[in-house]
């Protein structure tokens, strides 16, 4: 057993003993049904070594982790013109807050809060029907992971459409400012289905490899994005990937990371590893409580923090 493999298994064992696991996202009915005792972890190193523990092969709803892949796809289409419609600053507000949109002219602070991700979905929708746009996001995610089994959970997507009143408010507000170019219901349809993508920790870690390797997908040898763009996506993940808990995550973990209310976190140690954890119980800021703790312990034992001397 490799040293990293042993660390991953040890951490999974430690996480199994913790009783305070946070609360599942009960405002989306299918997510409310997930057992908070579940935990998975996958670490894929730069040389391709793959280390799994717990429920690492169990598919779960990645929710806002999908925003990383949608942003990458949208940047490929629109380039830096995207930043005229979405900012690059931390929000300091909850992921579904509407407060800043009024004072900032309908321009979301960053692409990882819900408002920003809805604008990104609107950009991907350009020239497509919603079904085609969703298919493009799904195909892109499958290609990054090299896994055709990744799917959209239609039950989750339907539940989000039935309960997503705040997202509808955000979309309508941005439409009023001219920052949404398609009918609200079409853009939201793309967004809800994107968030309903389901994959395992292993698949998620595979999909994140290009951010570990300067934009290159090691399975194909091809560049997904330039090295500069990969670096900038990682920077946004570090600053904004955990909403108003991003500073705490940077302080405790020190990796680029993107969370989702399904309990997943994708974390990147540039040049070292692509890491995915899943524990469905959330803390008060909507981030995986046990997942963040597992990543903190992983970094303590590996020295992978981007703030470690010699990085």
Based on CA inertia axes, which overall geometry fits?
globular
First-residue to last-residue Cα separation: 26 Å
Task: Give the rounded overall mean pLDDT.
Answer: 96
- Derived from helix and strand composition plus strand pairing, the structural class reads alpha+beta
Main sheet attributes: strand count, strand direction, barrel closure: 5 strands, antiparallel
Unreliable residue runs: none
Going across the biggest sheet, name each strand in turn.
2-1-8-7-6
Total beta strands = 8
Oligomer classification: single chain
Q: Which radius of gyration do the C-alpha atoms yield?
A: 18 Å
Strand content: 5-15%
Order of helices and strands: HHEEEHHHHEHHHEHHHHEEEH
- In DSSP terms, counting alpha (H) and pi (I) runs of 4 or more, how many helices? 14
Helical fraction equals 40-55%
């Amino acid at each position: 057993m490799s040293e990293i493999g042993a660390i991953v298994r040890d951490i999974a064992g430690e996480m199994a003993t913790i009783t305070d696991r946070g609360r599942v996202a009960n405002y989306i009915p299918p997510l409310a049904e997930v057992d908070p005792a579940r935990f998975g972890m996958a670490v894929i190193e730069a040389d391709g070594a793959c280390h799994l523990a717990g429920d690492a092969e169990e598919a779960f709803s990645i929710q806002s982790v999908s925003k990383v892949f949608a942003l990458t796809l949208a940047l490929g289409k629109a380039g830096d013109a995207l930043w005229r419609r979405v900012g690059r600053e931390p929000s300091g507000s909850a992921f579904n807050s509407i407060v800043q949109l009024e004072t900032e002219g309908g321009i979301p602070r960053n692409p990882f809060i819900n408002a920003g991700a809805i604008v990104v979905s609107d950009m991907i929708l350009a020239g497509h029907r919603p079904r085609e746009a969703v298919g493009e996001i799904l195909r892109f995610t499958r290609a990054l992971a090299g896994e055709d089994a990744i799917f959209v959970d239609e039950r989750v997507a339907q539940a989000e459409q039935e309960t997503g009143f705040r997202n509808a408010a955000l979309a309508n507000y941005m439409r009023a400012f001219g920052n949404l170019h398609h009918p609200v219901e079409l853009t939201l349809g793309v967004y809800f289905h994107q968030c309903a993508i389901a994959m395992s920790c292993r698949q998620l870690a595979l999909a994140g490899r290009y951010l570990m390797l300067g934009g290159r997908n090691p399975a194909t040898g091809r560049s997904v994005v330039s090295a500069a763009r990969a670096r900038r996506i990682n920077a946004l993940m570090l600053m904004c990937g955990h909403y108003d808990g991003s500073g705490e995550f940077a302080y405790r973990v020190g990796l680029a990371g993107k969370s989702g209310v399904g309990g997943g976190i994708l974390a990147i140690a540039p040049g070292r590893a692509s890491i995915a954890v899943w524990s469905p119980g959330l803390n008060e800021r909507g981030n995986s409580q046990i997942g963040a703790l597992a990543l903190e312990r992983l970094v303590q034992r590996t020295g992978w923090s981007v703030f470690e001397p010699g990085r």
